Amino acid sequence: MTRATTAPADRTRARRPSESIVADLLEAAAVEFAAHGFAGASTRRIAQRAGAHQPQINYHFTSKEQLWRATVDHLFTLMDAALPALDRPGPLGHAFVDLLHAFIRFSAEHPELDRIINLEATVPSARLEWLVATHLTPRFEVVAAGWRQLRSEGVGADLTAGEVWELITSFGAMHFANAPMLSLLGIHEGDGRSEAEAHAERVLAVLLPTATGRAPAP
Amino acid sequence: MTRATTAPADRTRARRPSESIVADLLEAAAVEFAAHGFAGASTRRIAQRAGAHQPQINYHFTSKEQLWRATVDHLFTLMDAALPALDRPGPLGHAFVDLLHAFIRFSAEHPELDRIINLEATVPSARLEWLVATHLTPRFEVVAAGWRQLRSEGVGADLTAGEVWELITSFGAMHFANAPMLSLLGIHEGDGRSEAEAHAERVLAVLLPTATGRAPAP
DNA sequence: GTCTATACCGAGATAGAC
DNA sequence: GTCTATCTCGGTATAGAC
């Protein structure tokens, strides 16, 4: 493949038509940052994975740090597009169930976001502060308000909003973020779409044990 | 402090009496590996934190990789010393409750181990294979056998052994491993010893909702 | 066993031709 | 905007005096 011109084809990497380089760099950066963390990831490898040259990262993103932030922004944009709103018309419980299913499904398809968040979560840093203030806090507020409303209606397990958030982001997302380890352990049935739905039901069995016709599997 | 000899005191680091260097290096390595991952941690910083010189790491541990494995071994040794056995005399349910309390308490006191595991869990590697085969699989087998026994006695929520393992290691341990993020989010009340007990009760409320006089808080 | 000096490599970032 | 060449820095590991 790679075009058959008269020029030597054994170039380090075929020249790119310059169209989607930024998008390709963001996608490659998500994989590398998720796999090795900010410090461990290298811009050389990111560029190589995207079929670009390393200095193009500095040209398009100024610095490695800016590339990291753009990558996180990009992944959250993808996630928002995949999640339904919580304040739509109809029963809040149904909206909550749908939101959780969509979140788990997204975590299965894009484990990179949860991995990146977990990699930053353990040590204070400017990146973590930015991540929490920019992306996590606003979303937590929405979920927390929804959960408190549900609880005031007598629905849901006896858990605080914070505990619900922790349960969803740890137990819910870790199943896919840590898939390589769980696979070696013999847990993790397979990455099929049905696996995401099954896992969402597991989480819901804990959060909404008796609500809206939902019950623990027999 | 640091001894007042005639020699210049502004040495990079005071000379060590050579007694506990290995132990100090292991402790420093746990902190640095937990904070930055294997690739992101640097042997220079580890040595500096331990009050040693960087080449001493290669002398005592041969390589960075061997230092990492020794660090993991060390942390698991600490954990084993802090956990009660599951097959002691008496009701298995009680032993299970005690084990979980001790595990959560250890996770609160030594969040480094869970952090190191999570940092490796997301990408296949020789280190991950070693970690799972050497340390995780044997312990998982014990917990899984205990859980299946409990279930056969009609005790415990309707969860597989794998799901119980995931719940404990993610929701149970993440509360302390990700404390910096949760603190910025406004979750996480404080690191007190009572916080560990409270969190263990939360996990048990999910795992053993109705067993042995245990019930969800009113 | 400890410490200094250093070899060697790969990192991020920049300059400048194209 | 792209690409090559290169600067500078920090990484791991090793040699050899003490």
What is the chains' assembly state?
homodimer
Low-pLDDT residue intervals, each spanning 5 or more residues of chain A: 1-12
Tell me the Rg of chain A in angstroms.
Answer: 20 Å
Class by SSE composition of chain A: mainly alpha
Shape of chain A: globular
Percent helix of chain A: 55-70%
Total E-strand runs of chain A? 0
Largest sheet of chain A: none
Short account of what is shown:
The structure is a homodimer of 218-residue chains. Chain A has 218 residues and is mostly helical. In chain A, 69% of the residues lie in helices and 0% in strands.
Summary tags:
disordered N terminus, mainly alpha, homodimer, DNA-binding, Tetracycline Repressor, domain 2, globular, 218 residues, Arc Repressor Mutant, subunit A
What would you say this structure looks like, in words?
The structure is a homodimer of 218-residue chains. Chain A is an all-alpha fold. The first copy, chain A, is globular and about 55 Å long. In chain A, α1 (21-40) packs antiparallel against α2 (43-50). The first copy, chain A, has helices spanning 21-40, 43-50, 54-61, 64-82, 92-109, 111-121, 126-152, 161-177, 179-185, 193-207. Chain A folds into two domains: 13-64, Arc Repressor Mutant, subunit A; 83-207, Tetracycline Repressor, domain 2. The interface between A and B is large, with 53 and 53 residues. The structure holds a DNA duplex (18 and 18 nucleotides).
